[in-house]
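Good day; I would like, with your permission, to put a structural problem before you. What I wish to show you is a protein chain and, alongside it, a tokenised description of its three-dimensional fold. Thank you for your consideration; the sequence and its tokens are set out here:
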Amino acid sequence: MFIMSEDSQRTQGRDAQSSNIMAGKAVAEAVRTTLGPRGMDKMLVDSGGEVVITNDGATILNEMDIEHPAAQMIVEVADSQEEEVGDGTTTAAVIAGNLLGEAEDLIEQDVHATTIVEGYHEASEIALEAIEEQISEEAVDDDVLKQVAESSMTGKGTGGLTAESLAETVVEAIRHVELEGGVARDNVTVHTQIGASSNATELVPGIVIDEEPAHEGMPTDVEDASIAVLDVELGVRTGEIDAEYAIDSIDQLNTALDAEESEVRGYAETVADSGADVVFTTEDVDDRVSNFLANEGILVFENVGSSDAKDIVSATGATRVGALDDLEESDFGAADRVRTDSFGDDELAFVEGGAAAETVTVFVRGGTEHVVDELERAIGDALDVVATALASGEVVPGAGATEIAIADKIREEAAGIEGRKQLAVNAFADALDVVPRTLAANTGQDPIDALVDLRAAHESEGRAGLITSGEEVTIADPFEYGVIDPADVKREAVESATEAATMIARIDDVIAAE
């Protein structure tokens, strides 16, 4: 009797566990060398020749063509970390991979997978307690937020800019969208533009869109702008069906042309009489309408994308109007300034100040596409972690210090756990050592010696991390050097890595259809 298709493949028992664990470890190993301020970059080339150069863990894992289902779970760890807190993706993936490695050793010692899972979950609870103990008692002010942003970007591609200078821009952006009930992170966008040094990166109090005026005679700078957002075609109406009209005389032709001209002028006059200074429409604008409105000094943008129109509405407080006859002054949005600027062959529209200032844009410049792409990723992560730190008000030491503290507490608590589960708890602590060991290896230090020194410094000083300053690497209190991470980044890394590792370790049967 055939229960499954003859073409299906089945792997059971130790072979299934070994295959899954090996796949998970391989994915984690792929991003391990990118960790820390001295982490290396990866060059990813797809089948079409598209090149991505980055050391961002989530980007690397998503760009890799990964097919193994267990390996995909590690990718999901990075995705979850990125979605929840915006940073720490490499840390989460590396911890997950090492939890699997430790689980593999325990399985070879005949420790049952269920025991390992129970031990890992208990250890993760201890880890979360240890993170709580590492939270700084100082208030999270702008100086701390800058340190959080700088710590996030250190080691990432920031072009000619230093992480310190970018950190100021990031904190200013997040403070700009701070509300009484939290941080409106979605109100901060990053817009990239090739063609200048990264030093030209700036914060725009408003939004930036890829649009140019509908007519070259229109103004390029409008102050104290009243803004209309339309879903209206400003041109001659066309029917839904094909039709032909027979014209027998010049008089009939002139009458038709006059009617068309009257219709077009009516659209233009309606817009002009409404009092709008700037018009964004998602539809076409007839050249005659554009010319008339240009003569009236009105700035018009046509064929605006629906998402851009939505952003303009959100930023300026305008109401999106679907019929020109419905346009009223109460539908207008407001901005201190709407201007256009040319960057090489590209022209951009800037909607700044006024109601639009509730949204801010980090306008990123760079000499090449690779530079601006990596800058965009680095700034995006920094914005996320600063928003996270500001919202929670909780930060912990970076540079591997928190992982050293977690592992130390887990080993201390493990002594009170009976049975084989104690082995799994201790293995969890050993897995966390991968973070300081990797940081040490990536700075050219001996990982074992560095780990021993870090443990000794933690025992004597209570807090110890691997601090990199130029070519010098020292063991010290990360808080004193401004190497700081949001507590939520560490919590999410522990929780997501534990969840993935325990899920993979429990699988002892893989059935794959051809």
